[in-house]
Amino acid sequence: MRYHDLNRSNTVLIVSDFIVIFIVFALGLNFAEVYYAESLPKAGGYLYFIQLFLFSSTLQISTLAVGLYNEKLRATFKSVAIRILVAIILAYGLSSFVFFFIPVTSFPFLLRELLYVCSATGLLICRQIALSTDYTNLNRRKVIVLGSGERASLINTCMKRRADRVNFDLVGYVHMNGDSVCMSATVPKIELSSSLEQYVIDNSIEEIIIGADERRGNLPTNVLFNCKLNGVLITDIIDFIERETGQIAVSHIHPSWVIYNTKSSRSYIGKFGQWLFNCFVSSFVLLLTWPLIIIAALFIKLEDGVFSPILYSQQRVGRQGKIFSIYKFRSMCVNAEDNGAQMSFKSDERITRVGAFLRKYRIDELPQLYNVIKGDMSFVGPRPERPEFCQRFDSSIPYYSQRHDVMPGLTGWAQLKYPYGDSLDDAIEKLKFDLYYIKHRSFMLDILILIRTSEIILFGKGR
């Protein structure tokens, strides 16, 4: 089972990182008792527990924020080392902020700095071992697919790369009566010389995916029942795609999926709590980024002239279809839409030099903190789209209007999982991730998305 992107292989990384951090902290504590005995507080063991919690939690949150627990991260050791260095700097800054307000948990002079240096060394060694042993194989399961038609082809469509299949080994496809389209010859097919049940036993199959186009009276129900009793996981292909990719196969779900899987609106207390949380996060981000806001405004003026506008606003579609005005730093030339509304695209000539930098690091989105505080937007949710484009997408893409069941956000699950899109096909792909978020949305998922958005900002993955 998975909790969003959490699986066995990155769980091993999380646990091993904590062990490294704990060992470093324990050694540092022994070192302090020898060389800092007079300056250590006399508050008892509970204080050491608080220090360990703050030290380890800030480090592991920072490690998550730079993408080191991303199961699809394919980076060289040099790139991993850079990310660990960034994580150490982030953790040091975050812990300094905490220790400023909770001075009772502070460390003796230079001890905390030594602990972070030792932690960086330990994490580097841990990652080198992980990379050299191919730790992702810890999570791989042998699976087969019942079906070789249109529904079964979803696996190749949604998970083309090996990096998309880090959790399973696909042994092959079993052709079923009623499969509409046979898959290409390059796809591994299984010719059963004995019963399906015997094949599952002989090949140590751990999961059977139901991907047949025609199911009524066509599935070997008794065989599947026996396999399930023997510990084999039986999974519908739509649920399999959702679990492995974090998206919903929009073209293959039925209206009943929306009825049974869309959460009801939160209570007034829940909505008020969400607004308080959004206001708190917005205020915190504003406190950290106000120098960037001033610098961004200054550079926009320097590039386009003293009398050029700094901000621009656009109408966007919010929750339940409500239209509101969104605010951004202007990243395009002043007359960018004289010919009407146009979607931005890669290498768009309307984007200014300063605007390209602002987009890359998401600085152009900072004025939307006002929208969050005002209540038009949440910090996490599907990105709000313009009314002109919503009308077009709503008539062309099934279930597109379901995006408006929740409040739009500054960042979202689709922004983590899919690159910037500028076409109808991209809108469909992003909707798959938005529907996944709508189905699974929770406070913990919002926190996970907020933390992982840091990777996009720090390493310039925005646009």
UniProtKB/TrEMBL annotation:
Ligase listed as a keyword: no
Task: Supply the alphabetized keyword list.
Answer: Membrane, Transferase, Transmembrane, Transmembrane helix
An annotated GO cellular component of this protein is: membrane
Q: Which domain of life is it from?
A: Bacteria
Q: Name one GO molecular function term.
A: undecaprenyl-phosphate glucose phosphotransferase activity
What InterPro entries does the database record attribute to this sequence? Bact_transf, EPS_sugar_tfrase, Sugar_tfrase_EpsB_2
Pfam families in alphabetical order: Bac_transf
> Can you say what this protein is called?
TIGR03013 family PEP-CTERM/XrtA system glycosyltransferase
